[in-house]
Amino acid sequence: MPSEALPHLRRLEAEAIFIMREVVATFERPVMLYSIGKDSSVMLHLARKAFFPAPLPFPLLHVDTTWKFREMIRFRDETAKAFGLDLRVHTNEEGRAQGINPFDHGSSFYTQVMKTEALKQALDAGRYDAAFGGARRDEEKSRAKERVFSFRSESHGWDPKNQRPELWSLYNTRVKAGESIRVFPLSNWTELDIWQYILAEDIPIVPLYFAAERPVVRRGDQWIMVDDERMRLQPGEVPERRLVRFRTLGCYPLTAAIESDAVTLDAIVAEMFAATTSERQGRLIDHDEAGAMELKKREGYF
Amino acid sequence: MAHGVAAEAAGAPVAHPGEKTLLRFLTCGSVDDGKSTLIGRLLHDTKRLFDDQLSALERDSRRYGTTGETIDFALLVDGLVAEREQGITIDVAYRYFATDRRRFIVADTPGHEQYTRNMATGASTADLAILLVDASQGILTQTRRHAYIVSLLGIRHVVLAVNKIDLVGFDRHRFNEIALAFEEAVAPFGFRSVAAIPISARDGDNVIAPSPRTPWYDGPSLIGYLEEIDVTSEEAAQPLRFPVQWVNRPDATFRGYAGTVAAGALRPGDGVLVARTGQAAHVVRIVTMDGDLPSAEAGASVTLTLDRELDASRGDVLVAPGHRPEVSDQIAAHLIWMGEEPLLPGRSYLLKCGTRTVGASVSELKHHVDIETFKPLAAKTLALNDIGLVNLSLSEPIAFDPYEVNRTTGSFILIDRFTNATVAAGMIRFGLRRATNIHWQALDVDKRARADAKGQRPCILWFTGLSGAGKSTVANLVEKKLHLAGRHTYLLDGDNVRHGLNRDLGFTDADRVENIRRVGEAAKLFVDAGLIVLVSFISPFRSERDMARDLVGRGEFVEIFVDVPLEVAEARDPKGLYRKARAGEIRNFTGISSPYEAPLAPDIHLEAGSAEPEALADQVIAFLRDGGYLRS
After folding, report:
1. CA B96 → CA A136, B39, B44, B47, B150, distances in Å?
2. ipTM exceeding 0.85?
3. One domain for residues A239 and A149
4. Inter-chain contact B5–A207, Cβ cutoff 8 Å?
């Protein structure tokens, strides 16, 4: 990044790089959770900077629920190839065999089985003692109090009332066998910082973030994309083509699009300045109940 | 990939709001001063609140709120379910907002008495503090206390937000009175800037824009002030400090020192020294993925290559020649105790300073700071949220600067060795003269020379286990066998040492720690003399055994767990002690009324309940032979 541009982004970048190096210097088996979204793209970019000229000293892990947008999977595989990444993909095979899906089982149960449980399985199997996540504190209330180095018990539980105090940049990296730390290098970034950084650094992102005509149906006040033939249409529902884009990406039946004509990064940043709703508005699982995210996190959700 | 789209954007006018700097501040105040309301107001008025967040807030306000029909902004920042139910903020929360001028990170820290540790946490990364007071209450003891903690943590800029000014009828005199009292109260803390602003967080007066309801106030609004204030620290202008975080060695041709510049600046060609050893080199390149840099200054995360190989690794600090930091294993520091368990002087903790972690124990608790009067009080221990001035003794020297000079190279945390909890935050005041200026004398006849003369590798054989486990019996046998083989040994027995060296110590936890420390130090001297030292001590706490381990070099401490079930030891009861303990005649007796923490991974595990002492002694001898401690 040109050193005179956007001093606050430079400071956030330096902090994230410091955090990543601290993990690699002190943990035995780190892993980076790669969700393919914009935050993961930024996190990956920062990691490449942190360890340059060495290749990434840890693998990337993607928990594939089998319901991600097809463009996400394509982007994931292209990215892994382009940067020579050690990408590991895990799916909860038990859940897949039982046909767990967001239509029949509800978003809450589906998320528990195909995301939270799947993640625990993959972390246990890899015996990872540190896992990078792209979560930001500005995303959701319960995240505002999460540490950068967030301790997890042997069963991956998070105890919000018993967190280690975190002072200066002196992160406590000590864990016993079986315990782990989730590390959030983007803790202090906002959604706008992420977009400005993507713009300043020209970081590749999934094309779904840019507006295009896509087949969608109206559900309540949200646009849901019909990404493949598995989408269950309700009686009378006919997909229509609309100019839409996504502010956040996840499983396609659970992720709402917004109407937008922003086809460039500049247009997206401009749209951000004018935005009146938060990005998590597009996440259907967050609205279940007050404290929904805190409950999920206690159980091990990222 | 979406590269094509991004490439199209290049060259187009960029929709960013110009050059923003980042200001980190914390807010502190008592429970009802309206801290959370102020932050909610800041987020709302700077448009960081989105429609869906507002509607969630309206819903929550009806359910948990305390403001009747209007929106309760406090609920926005009281994030955790428990907090919303209890109506108190129990942890530091970080919030983000921006204006056209600046990006802000706010640490919202609880002001309730028992949460000093959270305030210190929020203050540690902040450049400025907003202290809130209720205009109808004025300056309270708490306000002074918050100002003290803020100053202790090195914050140089404070703003007094006189909140609820509407409740005192926007009274100019009341405001002036409070502002004056505040200036007097904080004068001893030496803040570089102090400002007072009358506000109403609930109604928004003087938060974003000057309020027409306080025409007598001609200063800036709170946000106006935060946008303008210059909090630049002098770190960039100081001599270089570069803590090595990670050595980057992708292949044999590249060796880079990765780290974040803590002070000063670097340019290719600059000379640097390793603080600990004085080894010198020159910077060749400042490597980044975006190309080599012509310079890097405080705050930058970079990778350096040097013109020669140095014996430097994680934990070393590269510094400017001629401006070396202090290097010492004895330091004086302020501690803020954050552990549930109180500080035990003499107990060994881990100290993390910069990228370096060493063993540390409090050698002297100088005083405890009374938070109400700021007077130093004598103390034996520090409990949760206590602040004290201590001398620390470290297992190895560290390079540091006083905290008031540099917050990065002058700060540390203490970690409990067993629970891994962060138990204290520390701010270094100075190195203790005796250690800073008295360097270790490199002796011509050293440990190795003495040991070579005896045909052995010196070590401590540390026998731990319950009373009656058979530690002394086995240790005696081992010593006899070694002596017969012509080895040079010495045995330190728990009971015997208590008759002499440790005669002044009792059986409280603190005394037990000191007991072990002295025995460990005595054993270390014998190891230095080239001897195989046998130590037979119950030594029930893992952290104390680890402390003894840290005193000597790698491989010089052999932990031997003499393991018997409690029933067996109690049945043996050679000295009749268990009977007395059961009868309540002995307090703090290990296994009965005080815990025994068994070794998790002893070097030698002796099943002393089933095997004969002779066989156990042979097991120890075999370990020494196989481990190369005995030369044939």
Report:
1. 10, 10, 11, 11, 21
2. yes
3. no
4. yes
